[in-house]
Amino acid sequence: MNLDEKLARSRSNERIDFSKYQSVGKDDPLVEIVSGEKILVEPCWMLEDDWEGQRYRGYIASHPEYKGVYIRSELASRLQTAASALDDKYRLVIRAGHRPIEVQRRILIDCADDYKQANPGASDKEALEHAREFVSDPDLTLPPHVCGAAVDIDVKDIATDQLLDFGSKLNDDTEDSFLWYPDLTQKQKNNRLMLLTVMLDAGLASCMPEWWHFSYGDQVWAWFYGEEDSLYSPIDL
Hints:
Blueprint (H helix, E strand, L loop, with lengths): L2 H8 L19 E3 L6 E3 L9 H12 L7 E3 H13 L4 E7 L4 H18 L5 H11 L15 E8 L4 E2 L22 H16 L3 E3 L2 E6 L3 H6 L13
Parallel strand pairs: 2-4
Antiparallel strand pairs: 1-3, 4-5, 5-6, 5-8, 7-8
Helix pairs in contact: 2-4, 3-6, 4-5
């Protein structure tokens, strides 16, 4: 699949039948991502206003050994490839990788609850369906983050020490976060395309509702690249 084909695939609104992609249970350990010349590790739980980070903080408070960002080793290798392909003035900022299933369930429940608060007439079913647009339900899928198969990414300008403008914050559960959301400035669109290109070139899959989310070896990746199975199952640290 060439880059043009990958970019076209990233625009797809196809509903994925996750039951078609069962994990082969590949043995690939979790490794900790560390900061380097082209990668900066600043987890979402270090950001006071990050909605998802708040859920991680609650978990880390009772699991102090869980203090880094971890992903499968093959994903880590491809992430380094993507970072190296960035223009020298940029640096990948890693916000999240592996996610404990306890955190995954908490995020799903809270996303649904927030939707009901904002939409008082919504039913529990409607709220859960909305939440599932942004958060994988462990009862239905093999969540990419829980499998250690996904990363959430920002990009920083090294000279200014400022994050690039992508048109929305990470973990924003509105249409603004959709990868190809049309109502963006040209600069915001260019920034998204730049990030998308280096990640696709490294063999990762994009996520239509979240411009910051990329994966390797999960069910979305299997669908994206036409594989028969996914590689990874849920894993604990």
